[in-house]
From TrEMBL:
Keyword Signal applies: yes
Keyword annotations from UniProtKB, A to Z: Signal
InterPro entries associated with the record: FG-GAP, Integrin_alpha_N
Lineage: Eukaryota, Metazoa, Ecdysozoa, Arthropoda, Hexapoda
Protein name (database record): (California timema) hypothetical protein
Length: 312
């Protein structure tokens, strides 16, 4: 997260710009000039959930309390955190929205692609599903390729197959790349002692030009954040934004020093939603002024909170 400088506790917490109402928001994400939000209701067992977006939030930072969302659709059971897809990869600006969770009635996951370069969005195109055959996937990918070709973008089936994940039960770990199936994917256990792992990011967390893995976990009693890296000399370590999930709070972890070997962080309360469950949070420079904004979801509170490091 970008901020003016690191001099102590007073600089850790950003300015709260406001909040707006939206029920049961689980995930927030920013792609290009759009803020995306997902909603899921565990009590609506067989009902798909809503996904939303806000265009150009960076131009509306002075009126956060009056932000209004646009509904994309209601085609995902428990929509999770989405992935932004560059137009250089598939020819058009797009997002891939995964869904599905262990809640009864919400286990039928999808990988829905939405093309977002014009409104209303083009989609969804479900490119993977755990109970579909290869033939079903082939038909859906062909439909997706047809949509691409209608825009003259040259995204034919061969290019799309490079990204295809075969999703039927018998080939859940098979990946098709350039027409060749990789029957086995090698995995390495990083740490099996931290309990249930939830969020994971791969980033250069300490500015040493090497990627680290940052994982949030819960061991049944305490939530923790773990980082795995090869230490080296660096300066200006960034803050870590943490959603407390079922304790209803969002936090910012700030480094106590710039020493590469010092992994001590202070826990700073960003937002107490005064409700049972939060949702995700994201830090992004929404208005291009060089300072990060933070958008944090309050799932049970039915609120979305917006903060900024821009000097006020």
């Amino acid at each position: 997260m970008q901020r003016a400088r690191i001099v102590g506790q007073n600089d850790v917490l950003p300015t709260k710009l406001g909040q707006f109402a939206l029920g049961e928001v689980g995930f927030v994400h920013v792609c290009e000039d759009k803020l995306y939000l997902s909603n899921f209701n565990p009590l609506a067992l067989l009902q798909a959930d809503y996904i939303y977006y806000i265009s150009s939030p960076g131009s509306q930072l002075s009126s956060v309390n009056s932000w209004e969302v646009e509904k994309i659709d209601q085609n995902n059971y428990w929509p999770n955190d989405l992935t932004c897809t560059s137009s250089s990869i598939i020819g058009r600006e797009a997002i891939i929205w995964p869904s599905g969770f262990l809640v009864p009635g919400k286990t039928h996951g999808k990988l829905n692609v939405y093309f977002t370069d014009k409104e209303p969005f083009d989609g969804p195109y479900n490119i993977a599903s755990e109970d579909e055959s290869e033939e079903d996937l082939e038909r859906k990918l062909t439909k997706w390729a047809g949509a691409m070709e209608r825009y003259g973008l040259g995204m034919n089936m061969e290019k799309i197959k490079m990204m295809k994940v075969a999703g039927n039960t018998n080939s859940a770990n098979k990946v098709t790349i350039n027409g060749k199936k990789l029957e086995k994917i090698k995995t390495v256990v990083i740490d099996d002692s931290i309990g249930e792992s939830w969020g994971i990011e791969v980033t250069d967390i300490n500015n040493d030009q090497n990627l680290e893995i940052v994982i949030s976990s819960y061991d049944g009693s305490v939530g923790s954040v773990y980082a795995y890296e090869i230490p080296s000399d660096f300066r200006g370590k960034p803050y870590i934004l943490v959603a407390g999930d079922d304790n209803g709070k969002h936090y910012i972890l700030s480094p106590t020093s710039n020493d590469a070997d010092d992994w001590s962080y202070e826990n700073n309360l960003l937002q107490d939603t005064s409700a049972a469950t939060t949702g995700s949070a994201i830090a992004k420079d929404l208005d291009g002024d060089g300072y990060s904004e933070i958008v944090a979801a309050g799932y049970s509170a039915g609120q979305v909170y917006v903060f900024s490091y821009t000097p006020q």
